[in-house]
Amino acid sequence: MTSRSAPAPDRSAALRNATTTRTVSGLGRRTLCPDMGPPDLLSEILQDLRLARASYGRSELTAPWGIEIPFKEGVRFHFVAEGECWMLTVAQEPIHMERGDLVLLPHGSGHVIADSPIRRPLPLADVGPKLIGNSTYKLTAGGGGARSLIVCCTIGFDGPTAHPLVQLLPQVLHVRGSEFGDPSLPALLDTMAEEVIHPRIGSATIMARLADIIVTRIIRAWVETRPAELTGWLAAVKDQQIGAALAGIHRRPGHQWDVESLASLAGMSRSKFSERFVALLGVSPARYLLQWRMCLAEAWLKHGDLTVAQAAAELGYASEASFSRAFKRSIGVSPGAARVASA
User: Which of 35, 109, 151, 311 is most enclosed, with most CB atoms within 10 A?
Assistant: First the structure.
């Protein structure tokens, strides 16, 4: 009898068993990642906050000084690396910031930073920030008095998953250095300040990673400390039953969902499910599904990820024509026009 050697191990099979290809947060972007079990929807969305663009600033300011910073789309934060300052917005009372403090502006709101809450500011354009590297600028201003060093960052997220959560955040989040609930944040902020103050090879890449982590951790801390009486999208996500239905919509936007199948996911009767869904979100399940599909479609088409036909198929439409009609009713322009406008 002729002996035969044992078959070589199937390494590709082992890899397939160790990892899973899944669609993250309904974006249709398939990612090879360890199978950690089904996370909750909020964890997926925090995981899926992807930095698309960022700019960084090193502001060395001496009293007296004041700068008026206009609105800019994106999430902004200022970190006081040295000294102190005041920040003023139309949304609330002046905020006094000391060394180690951070202010997050989730909606890119216009604001003033100054050495005094009554200082008359100069427009940012008049102060003249200078570009010193890839998306990194330096700003020097003031009258030679007490010195403050402020690290600034403006970032934008890729894809629509961030929108429901970011829209819930207040106009201003002030985090005092002495009150950081996350022990890693001070070290991350100090590292970013060091990279901005002393740029070296690879600083742009390091700062991008740090900005991504810092903002995500601040948002996570805010979500975890919200009171139980919250309403709206965040309350719906945190609701065990309605959250299960939302997770189904976000993970499988092209599935032929109806009230019965979503209620089944939630473990509720159709009538109870519809009643609670509308109470929390203010729209019907069908309307929410449509809004999410169109939000995804608009992002895909604007970024050139998919053709109109591919987007229609990905989102479960029987024809390109039916998808195009739904898109134009919701967004106001045809899918083709949305795709061309971004080209």
Answer: 311
